[in-house]
């Protein structure tokens, strides 16, 4: 299962926000990182920044897929900004497992993205776990 | 962190025993085989990290296993934790595999040549700019339309092919025993993760760029804004620190 939705709003670089929904399954993670790399390429990120984003999205999705309930979806939203991209990944889980409780994955993620936040909220019949990362087009754009 | 510590302890004893056994002692081959088999989860785990290039996971696991065997053969028990030695060794083997293998898919010759042109342009521009170029800069430098640069960049990501049946043949189900794999992964990750978190930001970044992104020391130097000499020194110091910390942890457990 994969669905793609693009927003009608075009930005300066002509790349729109994209939302992708896939099965919350490790098998789908390569699809999402390719998506991320392609978007970053078209936003003219430098080649290092593209690779960093590809790996950061891989790590974020891998962390979440592990907690996801069987037969549920992983929602991934790519939001281009003028000089950055925001990637928001969400799954539903039965336990409130914070992604940062995997210290290794979290360290890799925070080293590759400019900033990363996580949230765990209780929803009907479980928990919604979210990771949001922000990446910039190159080293010089880092704060 | 009891589990990894116990496991580390047992490993140290077994690596000592391995070193003491004579080369043609049949017990040596058995012990060596056990050590490799017991760390297969690590090889699988790292192989999965490289699956993104479109190669088949099973092939990559074989390459990673060769790295693991080399790590088992070369590891000196007194150097501390096996993982701190095995991870870079296995990652190195996987990277060599990608460097040495050619195109797995039949790509039009024009696109192959473009790939070479782009790689050369990337090097030239990296030198000139002191950072990796953007696709737009590559296009301008090479006098190519941007779409053609995109095409070539996507093609190089697919330098290794994958069978259309690969996903059907390898469901994420039980064939590879994912349950066990993840349990073991918890061990590795639990042991290294907190240590990584304690490192100063620059050192942590250098480690991640070196071992998880596979960048050269020169590339890391450029990106972190220090000299290559400093990267080399910082890497050595940080690895020493990680080894010591993992070793102490093993002793304490």
From TrEMBL, chain A:
Coiled coil start-end: none
GO molecular function annotations of the record: protein serine/threonine kinase activity
UniProt keyword terms in alphabetical order: Kinase, Serine/threonine-protein kinase, Transferase
Domain (Histidine kinase/HSP90-like ATPase): residue spans on this chain: 22-101
Alphabetical list of InterPro entries matching this protein: Anti-sigma-factor_SerPK, HATPase_C_sf, HATPase_dom
Taxonomic superkingdom: Bacteria
Any single Pfam family the record assigns to this protein: HATPase_c_2
PANTHER family for the chain: ANTI-SIGMA-F FACTOR RSBW, ANTI-SIGMA-F FACTOR RSBW-RELATED
Name of protein: Serine/threonine-protein kinase RsbW
UniProtKB/TrEMBL annotation, chain B:
Residue intervals of the RNA polymerase sigma-70 region domain: 35-103, 117-169, 195-244
A UniProt-annotated Pfam family: Sigma70_r2
InterPro entries in UniProt: RNA_pol_sigma-70_dom, RNA_pol_sigma-B/F/G, RNA_pol_sigma70, RNA_pol_sigma70_r2, RNA_pol_sigma70_r3, RNA_pol_sigma70_r4, RNA_pol_sigma_r2, RNA_pol_sigma_r3/r4-like
Any one of the GO BP annotations: DNA-templated transcription initiation
GO molecular function: DNA binding; sigma factor activity
Top-rank taxon, per record: Bacteria
Keyword hit for Iron-sulfur: no
Key words, A-Z: DNA-binding, Sigma factor, Transcription, Transcription regulation
Annotated NCBIfam families: SigBFG, sigma70-ECF
Name of the protein described by the UniProt record: RNA polymerase sigma-B factor
Naturally occurring in which organism (per UniProt): Actinokineospora iranica
Lineage: Bacteria, Bacillati, Actinomycetota, Actinomycetes, Pseudonocardiales
